């Protein structure tokens, strides 16, 4: 392997996988700040404002490539670039209002990678061209499910190259492969890609590794668990409440009549379990326990679940503070001023970046009792939050009431949060990845973290 590694991250730019993109870019930024050359290769959608200055970016393919069962070079090379001139918000609105659009696109992506003996040959050639042009030595694949591309490039590349596969949310790709009747091909080719990498693949939690073994039949000996990383706050001083009021003008600070602020931040999709939180809020309202419920975050698969939230809120006669995606500044203000962050997912989450971020701001969390997310909130006997019985809105209400009423319990959990979150710092993740790749942890620019511009909010 070359003495001066160059990393290229192949990542899907937004939608259902934005959390995965944030993880990839957090790692990319940490490596760049240490003096490594880093390139981002975007698939389907690009989100350039999330990338710090100095890191090169290329479009590997646009989402238009997979509008039909067979990849379309014309739609990718001609229509995709033309559509990219329109504002991203406009493109997102169009997609959100076409039922099943995103699911169909991702299912077609799986067809292109797992139907034929060679996965999407023209895209492989394009990726190979970029790899050779940029002098890439380490190809970082954001998902195991797109790793067949890396395996083919490795076979064809004339210079030393290897790839690292990370699994984070691949069960969703497996579902798309199954719907296309390709699950057997998917498992076989996935196993081949994992075994032909120069390093064990990465699973982002112990529980998620067990899922990969049980559900996809992958060999646990071909994996290592390395947790995701987040950028820790530079100081413990909280953002002013006035920032929160800009997005949610009806929210009150420490309001005795309306209750404390309880927040959900994340994608507004059915698997995130927001309906469970609404049922729990209603149960608490019946008991006379008041809270100010905030629900915010993007959508990826259409606005149907947002309509469900609105309908349930109306039927349950609840008053909530409801928004779409919010800025990073408003998000951090929510973390800082909420009594707790509730993450009621029904999907056995692999990790939970929101949970780690909330704890880094000193805020306790409430999460289901299964999935990798439970590994985030607890270390030994130390906890930064509570768990509730998965899928059980009544138990969610009981545990939420404890966090709202028991000040001693809340103070004890809050005191643990920052130390627990520090285990998932971006620096720890980068150190673990470099060690995994047998590369030096220290670079000549490693002390100059202030030399690069900050991440810009999209």
UniProtKB/TrEMBL annotation:
The keyword Transferase applies. GO terms for biological process: lipopolysaccharide biosynthetic process. The keyword Transferase applies. It holds the Pfam family Glycos_transf_1. Keywords: Plasmid, Transferase. Residues 257-418 form the Glycosyl transferase family domain. InterPro entries: Glyco_trans_1 (IPR001296). One of its GO terms (molecular function) is glycosyltransferase activity. It comes from the Bacteria. PANTHER family: GLYCOSYLTRANSFERASE WBBK-RELATED. This is Glycosyl transferase group 1. It comes from Beijerinckia indica subsp. indica (strain ATCC 9039 / DSM 1715 / NCIMB 8712).
């Amino acid at each position: 392997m070359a003495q001066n590694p160059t990393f290229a991250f192949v990542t899907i730019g937004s939608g259902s996988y934005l959390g995965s993109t944030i993880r990839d870019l957090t790692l990319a930024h940490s490596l760049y700040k240490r003096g490594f050359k880093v390139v981002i290769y975007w698939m389907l959608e690009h989100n350039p404002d999330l990338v710090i200055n100095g890191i090169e970016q290329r479009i590997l393919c646009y989402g238009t490539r997979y509008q039909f069962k067979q990849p379309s070079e014309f739609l990718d090379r001609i229509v995709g670039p033309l559509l990219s001139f329109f504002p991203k918000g406009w493109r997102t609105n169009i997609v959100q209002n076409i039922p099943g659009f995103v699911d169909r696109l991702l299912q077609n992506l799986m067809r292109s990678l797992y139907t034929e003996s060679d996965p999407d040959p023209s895209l492989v050639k394009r990726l190979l061209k970029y790899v050779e042009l940029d002098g890439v030595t380490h190809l970082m694949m954001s998902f195991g499910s797109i790793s067949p591309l890396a395996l083919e490039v490795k076979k064809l590349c004339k210079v030393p190259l290897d790839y690292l596969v990370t699994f984070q949310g691949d069960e969703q790709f497996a579902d798309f492969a199954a719907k296309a009747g390709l699950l057997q091909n998917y498992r076989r080719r996935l196993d081949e890609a994992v075994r032909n990498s120069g390093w064990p693949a990465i699973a982002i939690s112990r529980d998620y590794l067990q899922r990969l073994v049980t559900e996809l039949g992958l060999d646990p000996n071909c994996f290592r668990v390395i947790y995701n990383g987040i950028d820790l706050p530079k100081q413990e001083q909280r953002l002013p409440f006035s920032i929160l009021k800009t997005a949610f003008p009806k929210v009150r600070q420490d309001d005795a009549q309306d209750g404390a602020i309880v927040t959900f931040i994340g994608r507004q999709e059915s698997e995130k379990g927001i309906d469970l939180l609404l049922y729990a809020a209603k149960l608490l309202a019946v008991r006379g326990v008041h809270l100010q419920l905030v629900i915010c975050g993007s959508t990826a698969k259409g606005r149907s679940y947002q309509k469900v939230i609105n309908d349930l809120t109306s039927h349950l006669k609840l008053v909530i503070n409801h928004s779409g995606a919010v800025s990073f500044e408003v998000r951090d203000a929510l973390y800082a001023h909420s009594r707790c962050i509730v993450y009621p997912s029904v999907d056995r989450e692999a990790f939970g970046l929101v949970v780690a971020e909330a704890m880094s701001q000193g805020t306790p969390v409430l999460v289901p009792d299964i999935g990798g997310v439970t590994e985030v909130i607890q270390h030994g006997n130390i906890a930064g939050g509570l768990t509730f019985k998965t899928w059980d809105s009544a138990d969610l209400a009981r545990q939420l009431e404890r966090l709202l009423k028991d000040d001693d319990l809340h103070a004890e959990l809050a005191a643990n949060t920052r130390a627990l979150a520090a285990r998932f710092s971006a620096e720890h993740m980068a150190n673990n990845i470099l060690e995994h790749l047998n590369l030096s942890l220290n670079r000549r620019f490693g002390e100059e973290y202030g030399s690069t511009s900050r991440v810009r909010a999209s």
